[in-house]
Amino acid sequence: MSIRRRLLGFFARRPAAGAWALLGPGLLWLLLFFAIPLAVLIGYSVLHRGTYGGVSPGFTLEHYRRFSDPIYLAVAARTLRIALATTGLCLLLGYPVAYVIARAGRWRNALLFLVILPFWTSFLVRTYAMIVLLRTGGVINSVLMGLGVTGAPLDLLYTPGAVVAGLVYGYLPFMILPIYASLERLDLDLLDAAEALGARAWSRFRRVTLPLSLPGVAAGSLLVFIPALGAFLTPDLLGGAKTMMLGNLVQNQFGPARNWPFGSAVSFALMVVVFAGLMVWLRVRDAEGEA
Amino acid sequence: MTRRLPGWLVALVTGVFVLLHLPVLVLVAYSFNASRYSADWSGFTLHWYARLLERPDILRALRLSLTVATVATVLATVLGTLVALGLARSGFRGKRMVEGGLYLPIVTPEIVTGISLLILFVAVRVPLGVGTVIVAHTAFCLPFVAVVVLARLRGMDRSLEEAALILGADEATAFRRVTLPLLAPGIMAGALLAFTLSLDDFVITFFVAGPGGTTLPVLVYSMVRRGIEPTINAVSAVLVLLTSLTVALAARVGGERGA
């Protein structure tokens, strides 16, 4: 009891010490198992390659210079293309959904629930479900052939299209929710005013609704673009060898290629891009908060 | 607001909702399909579920997934709640940085987190297995718990705790009898989030699992790589059921909070 008293007294006199006592264990865990591993990864990226994986001592920037190799530039370009296509498609499909939910009245909560529901299903299971649909003997091909649309099964799986489809399926809710949030806050009087002033439906949308929902569009686009850039499982299962993205390149360097420093360098580059994206997002969010 | 939505828009959105849910529904439906190879429906069967029970590796992976999720959830919830309390209850220098830093693990690509942990464990010669999986899961669940609990703390009325202190409760009693019960729904929500995140995680686990750490998602992945077979549909359906149960529990807790 007296020890507890004394401890409580100590923390009461020094609130900062109390805060650090609470923060300490959790932050220590994150330091040991998140921050330090990242620092080690960055360190590995400037060391020489070990013969059987791992690293051998000596500073070098050769792994970063390897980025200019056309093979890896092609992987980076493909990653960017796939991430952009995913973001574009999510926007095209997600905006109308967000718009309808924001205008859905009493159905609003039910529809929102339907948007969030897939989040609770394992990403791996959802990716596997795409295989079931897309593969040669899969559901889509069997429906198409049953209807006589096509005589022979189409090659849907192991294509860039399959990867984009899988990523859109996985990340669409990330696009819908922020756009919904900004549309939901939209002052409807503005639309009534526009109508009273003679603006037709399309021009009301283009000149009032759309500009006011742009912060949501920006947030949603980044929330889709960032994980799409770092995708690993989707291209691994749906893409096949010709659709390698940066995430697969990383895994490959730690697997069969046994070039840990190069894999570390690619990881670090990926993180830099992701954090740049996050900074942009925070700027957008703060700007939205001020508006 | 009674503006009518144009028909084409409603049709388009209905289509998107179908696309959003069709794949998993089809998958679950096919876990009851008697046909082994084709996508044609050839009758209802529970055969693939019966097969699951004959596979010791699947049962072992399921048990391991539940064990890992339970231990990691307890650790992440305790540590994450303490972090949230530390952040909410004090203003020290660097507080904003710590708060911002909590989001770093959330936005870091999973492959980078997984690889960097693998490097660390190999560098300090820790054998990969259940232990490393639990450590990794605790690390990636902790920030989610902290963020959820922090949000609840921010929305809480501190005057109740102050009233308890004025009425003569010491800090510990006020915390135990007033703050903690008010905070409980937030902690519960954070814990359930951590549990489903841990149960579902594949990418990070894949890199730190080693031979002894095969959780259900890691096993499902290796089954998919070996070739598509109906048993995978059944395991996937089980995984969907497990997370659905967790969510249903979360909804109930949320409902009680609302009441």
Structural description of this entry:
- The complex is a heterodimer of chains A (291) and B (259).
- With 291 residues, chain A is an all-alpha fold.
- Chain A has one domain (69-290): MetI-like fold, CATH 1.10.3720.
- Helices cover 75% and strands 3% of the residues of chain A.
- Chain A has 13 helices and two strands; from the N terminus they run ααββααααααααααα.
- Chain A has helices at residues 2-13, 15-44, 62-65, 70-102, 108-116, 123-134, 139-146, 160-184, 188-196, 201-229, 233-239, 246-254, 260-290; strands at 47-49, 55-59.
- In chain A, strands 1-2 form a two-stranded antiparallel ribbon.
- In chain A, a hairpin with a 5-residue loop joins strand 1 and strand 2 (55-59).
- In chain A, helix 8 packs across helix 11.
- Chain B is mainly alpha-helical and 259 residues long.
- The radius of gyration of chain B is 23 Å and the shape is globular.
- Chain B has one domain: MetI-like fold (Orthogonal Bundle), CATH 1.10.3720.10.
- Helix content of chain B is 77%, strand content 0%.
- In chain B, helix 8 (159-166) packs antiparallel against helix 9.
- Chain B has helices spanning 7-30, 47-53, 56-88, 95-101, 103-107, 110-123, 130-154, 159-166, 171-200, 203-208, 216-226, 230-258.
Of all chain pairs, the largest interface belongs to: A-B, 82 and 83 residues
- Compute the number of structural domains of chain B: 1
Average pLDDT of chain B: 87
Strand tally of chain A: 2
**What share of residues of chain A is helical?**
over 70%
SS content category of chain A? mainly alpha
Please name the CATH architecture of chain A.
Orthogonal Bundle
**Shape category of chain A:** globular
Ends distance of chain A: 53 Å
Radius of gyration of chain A: 25 Å
